[in-house]
Amino acid sequence: MKLLNVEIASAGYENEKPIIHNIQFDLQDGELIGLIGPNGAGKSTTIKTILGLMEHQKGAVEFKEGVKYSYIPERPIFYDELTLWEHLDFTAAVEGLPELHYKKKAEEFLKEYNLSEHAHKFPGTFSKGMQQKAMLILAMIANPDVYIIDEPFIGLDPNAMKLFLESIDRERQRGAGILMSTHVLDTAEKVCSRFLIVHEGQLKASGTLSDIRRQCGLPAGSLYECFHQIAEGNRNEK
């Protein structure tokens, strides 16, 4: 079932100065799509366009009717004056979550992510890894249909990364679709259903790893090798 359909003709921060062009894909339930590209390729602009944050854009971004999404930014964002538990209370109030159900779920997440003893502290005092885990809990508590995640592995130690991957796999099993921007290509190759390789603001290859290999002419290539084939090909064309 299609949860999200993206047809971005162009988008940018200034009128008539687009950063990205012709980004087209859809997200199905239970899918994890990896948005791959170097710094400055247009990944963040793509995500911001999907979220409706770009003033200058042409094209269409359509979520399925009734779909609820959660966004996890690369740099965690919190209210300075709220503790982690107060952030959870605020999220629950905005989403209209039943109190008893949400509190039980919140306690389970906090225990799972080893944040129970930090629940009544300010997230601004947390380490980067702890902040990433807190952001994930705040996203999951809303029980969204779609996750949009920007560079989730930055700041996570191996144990936290394993826990994160287990969590998003669990969310996929219940039918959530996930769009994840990442530089960690070896991990993306193992966990993603499909890939979008963006380079210099354009979608250069898309599909499963087999599709990407075929488009790059590397029948046995890794995602890393295919990505660099695309990057080198674009440099040679100039």
SS-based class: alpha/beta
In the predicted model, the low-confidence regions spanning at least 5 consecutive residues are: none
| Largest sheet strand order | 5-6-7-3-8-9
Helical run tally: 8
Mean pLDDT: 93
Portion of residues in beta strands equals 15-25%
Q: CATH top level? A: Alpha Beta
CATH superfamily: P-loop containing nucleotide triphosphate hydrolases
What is the number of domains?
Answer: 1
Would you identify the CATH architecture?
A: 3-Layer(aba) Sandwich
H and E order:
EEEHEEHHHEHEHEEHH
What is the count of β-strands? 9
Residues in helix, %: 25-40%
Distance between the termini: 40 Å
Major sheet size, sense and barrel closure = 6 strands, mixed
Overall geometry comes to globular
Q: Write down the CATH topology.
A: Rossmann fold
Q: What is the alpha-carbon Rg in Å?
A: 18 Å
InterPro entries: AAA+_ATPase, ABC_transporter-like_ATP-bd, ABC_transporter-like_CS, ABC_Transporter_VariousFunc, P-loop_NTPase
GO molecular function: ATP binding; ATP hydrolysis activity
Protein name: ABC transporter ATP-binding protein
Domain ABC transporter: 1-225
Q: What does this 3D model show about the protein?
A:
There is one protein chain. The protein has helices at 43-50, 84-95, 99-112, 128-140, 158-173, 185-191, 209-216, 223-237, and strands spanning 2-12, 20-28, 32-36, 56-63, 69-72, 146-150, 177-181, 194-199, 202-207. Strand 8 and strand 9 form a beta hairpin. Strands 5-6-7-3-8-9 form a six-stranded mixed sheet, sandwiched between helices. A three-stranded antiparallel sheet has the order 2-1-4, with helices on one face. Helices cover 39% and strands 25% of the residues. It is globular. The protein starts with a strand and ends with a helix. The chain has 238 residues and is an alpha/beta fold. The longest helix has 16 residues, at 158-173. The chain has a single domain (2-237), classed as Rossmann fold (3-Layer(aba) Sandwich), CATH 3.40.50. Helix 7 (209-216) runs parallel beside helix 8 (223-237).
